[in-house]
Amino acid sequence: MTLNNLFFPFKNIFKARDFSLSLYLSIASLLSLSFSFFENNSLVGTPTITITSSTAGVSDGSTTNDSSIALVFTLSEADINGSEATEFTVNDITVLNGTISDFSSNSETEYTATFTPTSSSSNVETTIDVYGYSFTDSNGDFNADSAQFNWTYDGVAPTAAIT
After folding, report:
1. Which 8-state DSSP code applies to residue 124?
2. Does the pLDDT value for residue 83 go beyond 60?
């Protein structure tokens, strides 16, 4: 059975003289469109996220007496897919011994926030993480775990005794 015979009952509906040629071209066009959909080279696999600080003197693993630090979250791919449930939000950030505030987007791949330690003690170890499967890129790929950002807050000023 040929495609022409298979679709013969529909020939009068479409009033097309060369219905089989139109069908062949339509199928070829559809296949071409379907395969070209997967050729988006701007998206390369699993999106990643990097956490850094823009506060002077603060880097991963450092100890400072800053009362809060500015954080920068850099995504390897934009998270633009129209659904807040799968976009990067403040709720995707997990912290230990502190709070996140002033979360904002600078671009489709860069976000900023302020981290404030919850204790004013000496040597408070804090961590900031973004776990995998928190957000997706526009292709629907979930993110990978971020490298943990570690910062130690030293809230106790040194004292000196004069004797």
Report:
1. E
2. no
80-85 mean pLDDT: 55
- pLDDT of 57 above 80: yes
DSSP for 86-122, please give it.
TS--GGGEEEESEEEEEEEESSSSEEEEEEEES--SS
Q: Which of 23, 34, 49, 65 is nearest to 152 (CA)?
A: 65
Are residues 134 and 55 located together in one domain of the fold? yes
Asked if 22 and 60 sit in the same domain, the reply is: no
End-to-end Cα distance, the chain: 107
Question: Is the domain of 26 the same as that of 87?
Answer: no
Backbone angles phi, psi at 124, to 5 degrees: -85, 115
Q: Which residue range(s) make up the domain with 28? A: 3-37
Residues 101 and 56 occupy one common structural domain: yes
What the block records as the tokens of 22 is: 């139109």
Structural domain count, the chain: 2
